[in-house]
Task: inverse folding
């Protein structure tokens, strides 16, 4: 596998496809460029998903995220683009991407985008005493 930025999102088979379970990945060093000023924008991405048949490979995800470093993008657009690419690569039961952008001009921005596979419903939460 290369160590250069790449849009190729490699996957691997879900080891427990018969079970709903969640995967949470934190990406604390996401950067892209403001499309208006060209200045860098910094965010922490949190990816949460319930896999179906495939899971995203972490090094490939790191190299994918790296491709945004020199790309101008509005927060809303980049969050939805990343989610769309990840959904296309893994076809999960559920996926949520939260992009918490650092302060810029006194304003914090958090964008949350979600995908649900047709017909999938989460199990009722378990309440322990």
Result:
């Amino acid at each position: 596998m290369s160590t250069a930025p790449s849009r190729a999102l490699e996957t691997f088979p879900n080891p427990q496809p018969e079970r709903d379970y969640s995967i949470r990945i934190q990406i604390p060093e996401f950067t892209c460029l403001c499309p208006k000023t060209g200045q860098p924008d910094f965010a922490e991405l949190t990816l949460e998903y319930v896999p179906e048949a495939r899971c995203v490979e972490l090094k490939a995800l790191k190299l994918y995220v790296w491709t945004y470093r020199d790309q101008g993008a509005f927060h809303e657009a980049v969050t939805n683009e990343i989610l769309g690419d990840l959904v296309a690569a893994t076809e999960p039961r559920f996926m949520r991407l939260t992009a918490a952008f650092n302060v810029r001009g006194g304003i914090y921005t958090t964008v949350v985008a979600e995908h649900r596979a047709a017909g999938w419903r989460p199990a009722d939460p378990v309440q322990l005493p």
